[in-house]
């Protein structure tokens, strides 16, 4: 059921009403006069009914608990008798207000915290702040990945396939080609890319070489160009030929 919301005093529940009655009577929570508080509590419930105010069932539950405590305190104390297994001293020390007192103390703590949070919210709502500034120019630019979509395993696989097709170094077919350095091969790759519009496929890059040493030098030259961010490697689909583009 929904919590009660009175037009006279807004009580959020039976504990809230009890706290109001206790504060109004200027008494301590630890010394609750059950008889007087019960009468006042029932009087409030009667007023609510006369005003046709709906209230939650927990108000009636608290009323029954107060009546039970009131009647328990009005009953005469049991006569102490020497009967085994019965602790009369414990029964005589029992105070039915103890549980209610602990609930009220705990409830009052949470109520105070709620009030403090509400005050902070109101203060925060009165603070005017500047609209957020555009700080996108402060975001560092992310450098492009030279192997976008291509892993090291893809490059090694392409290198492995090229070596498998290569002839041994001692085999010479056609015109003898002079040995070339990695730096020289890097320049050849860049020149070839310029000639082909800024891009070349890995298979085309190795197409004119038959010796394993030439393929190794070409592969090392490609890695150096990638490291220097002069080229990037792309692959549209898995196992596709690797495309090399100039940056």
UniProtKB/TrEMBL annotation:
Query: Mainly resides where?
Result: cytoplasm
Give a Pfam family name.
SMC_ScpA
For this UniProt record, give its keywords in alphabetical order, as a comma-separated list.
Answer: Cell cycle, Cell division, Chromosome partition, Cytoplasm
The reply to whether Cytoplasm figures as a keyword in the UniProt entry is yes
> Whom does it interact with, and what assembly results?
Component of a cohesin-like complex composed of ScpA, ScpB and the Smc homodimer, in which ScpA and ScpB bind to the head domain of Smc. The presence of the three proteins is required for the association of the complex with DNA.
Task performed by this protein: Participates in chromosomal partition during cell division. May act via the formation of a condensin-like complex containing Smc and ScpB that pull DNA away from mid-cell into both cell halves.
UniProt lists the family membership as follows: Belongs to the ScpA family.
Spell out the protein name for this chain.
Segregation and condensation protein A
């Amino acid at each position: 059921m929904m919590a009660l919301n009175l037009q006279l005093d807004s009580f959020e529940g039976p504990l809230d009403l009890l706290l109001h009655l206790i504060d109004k009577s200027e008494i301590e929570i630890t010394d609750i006069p059950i008889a007087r508080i019960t009468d006042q509590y029932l009087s409030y419930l009667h007023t609510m009914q006369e005003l046709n105010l709906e209230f939650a069932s927990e108000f009636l539950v608290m009323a029954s608990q107060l009546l039970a405590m009131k009647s328990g305190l009005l009953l005469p104390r049991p006569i102490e008798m020497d009967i085994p297994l019965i602790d009369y001293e414990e029964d005589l020390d029992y105070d039915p207000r103890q549980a209610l007192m602990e609930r009220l103390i705990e409830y009052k703590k949470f109520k105070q915290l709620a009030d403090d949070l509400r005050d902070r919210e109101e203060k925060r709502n009165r603070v005017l702040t500047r609209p957020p500034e555009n700080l996108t120019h402060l975001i560092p630019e992310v450098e492009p990945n030279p192997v976008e979509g291509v892993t090291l395993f893809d490059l090694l696989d392409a290198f492995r396939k090229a070596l498998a097709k290569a002839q041994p170094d001692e085999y010479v077919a056609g015109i003898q080609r002079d040995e070339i350095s990695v730096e020289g091969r890097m320049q050849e790759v860049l020149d070839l890319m310029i000639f082909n519009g800024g891009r070349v496929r890995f298979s085309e890059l190795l197409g004119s070489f038959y010796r394993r040493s030439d393929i190794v030098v070409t592969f090392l030259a490609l890695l150096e160009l990638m490291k220097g961010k002069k080229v990037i490697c792309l692959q549209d689909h898995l196992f596709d030929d690797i495309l090399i583009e100039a940056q």
